[in-house]
Amino acid sequence: PRDAARVVWKEACSGLIGGMVLGGLVAAVSRQIMGVSSHVSAVILFTIPLLSAIAAASASALPFVCVGMGLDPTVIAAPAMTSFVDVAGLVSYFLIAQAVFKMFGLEL
């Protein structure tokens, strides 16, 4: 637990880097090959790195939190992680979409 913050930070950074690569590729392919509009591609470009960082940080932090609360991380981790990442992903996606669309002068 002493190095929990360092572990969570490293995982979040690696998730962000991986998400930036994946988000860039998916945004480029969706724009160039699939013909998706530029504002939707921008939403993809910003959302995937954020979600990857959130998922990686959460996955690395949850076992430390469970142990601190006296719970067994192997029992709690999978259902809690799935629910948290799903909710965080949906909220992040809609907030980023709203900001990007507003930047392009579009209203949701």
How would you describe what is shown here?
By secondary structure, the protein is an all-alpha fold. It has a single domain, classed as Orthogonal Bundle (Tetracycline Repressor, domain 2), CATH 1.10.357. About 85% of the residues lie in helices and about 0% in strands. It contains 3 helices and no strands. Helix 1 packs antiparallel against helix 2 and helix 2 packs antiparallel against helix 3. The longest helix has about 30 residues. The mean pLDDT is about 90.
The total number of structural domains is 1
**How would you name the CATH homologous superfamily?**
SLC41 divalent cation transporters, integral membrane domain
Largest sheet geometry = none
Q: Extract low-pLDDT stretches.
A: none
Structural class: mainly alpha
What would the principal axes of the Cα set say about the shape?
elongated
End-to-end Cα distance: 43 Å
CATH class: Mainly Alpha
Keywords: Magnesium, Membrane, Transmembrane, Transmembrane helix, Transport
Subcellular location: Membrane
Transmembrane segments: 12-30, 42-64, 76-96
GO cellular component, one term: membrane
